[in-house]
Amino acid sequence: MYDVFLGLTQLMAPFIPFITEEIYANLKTDDMPESVHLCDYPHSEDKLVDLRLEEGMDHIRRLVESGRALRAKIGIKVRYPLKEATLVCTSGLEKLIKDILPLLQEELNVKTLHFGRDTSNFMVKHVKPNHAKLGPRLKQQAKEVVAILESMDKHALYETLQEKKEITLTVKGKPLTLTNDDFAVAEEVKPNVAQTQTEGFTLFFNTELTPDLEAEGLARELVRRIQSMRKDMNLDVEEKITAEIGGLVKEKQILLSSWQSYIKNETRSQQLRFVAHPKGAQVKTWTIDDLTVEIGIATS
After folding, report:
1. What is the model's pLDDT at position 44?
2. Which of 14, 18, 105, 115 has the most Cβ atoms closer than 10 angstroms to its Cβ?
3. What is the pTM of this model?
4. In whole angstroms, what is the distance from residue 181 CA to residue 284 CA?
5. CA 286, CA 231: separation in Å to the nearest integer?
6. Domain segments of the chain: what residues?
7. Are 2 and 29 in contact, with CB atoms under 8 Å apart?
8. CATH top-level class for 49-207?
9. Where are the beta strands (DSSP E) in the chain?
10. Distance CA 295, CA 245 (A)
11. For the CA atoms of 42, 45, 48, 50, what is the dihedral angle to 10 degrees?
């Protein structure tokens, strides 16, 4: 950080001479020139350029954008942690970003992040009627056959066709044999899985929110609201408060019990209470997803 500040100060000195002189005065050591305007102009150092790191960071940025867009699409805010995510990619791409993977894990807020090579673990194959084949062959019967097929388990149908290469239906009391050619194979993600793709990577989220994960997300949401109220009251960063929260059912209060210390530390609350009707110097009602909570804070 010191090198960055010093280098930027020297770069900007010709354009904003007085501000940079002030910054430089706070950065300089005894063996450095007295003024920023007496310094040599910075030059690039090729030995410090790490092209693999830059390429890896480009991938991380794109994955963060795609992952956050996917979270928005499935309606799970970034403040709510996800249990796990898997990146399906080549071994070369894995090596490229492996050392900086914690950045992606933090930005996407997932507890664990794995690498994989195969998407099949997250996908379910099924079949659907091939209308281009069935229509000309079955004519008037086609609509009735499609209706029967739509009522069947599509994945089980796929498995049967993989094994036996054909199935037999009963249509108006008569047997009708259909083969693989009468179907088109399709894939969809498994339940509680969300998927997105970006330049060589397929990212899968486990979207199941356990009670513990929900409690952590709710704790972060409450911290955000209390911090906003502290700002409205122009409180100093270290100024202690008392916080009261109302509107949470007993089950939510129990879930949040293990997060009370976190909320208190983040909001500088000496006391945190769950009450029916919060009181304080400022009391405000907030909507958090499907919850309506009332928060009251006062200086200690």
Report:
1. 87
2. 115
3. 0.75
4. 63
5. 16
6. 2-43, 49-207, 212-299
7. no
8. alpha beta
9. 82-88, 110-116, 123-129, 166-171, 174-179, 183-189, 193-198, 201-206, 241-246, 269-274, 282-288, 291-299
10. 5
11. 110
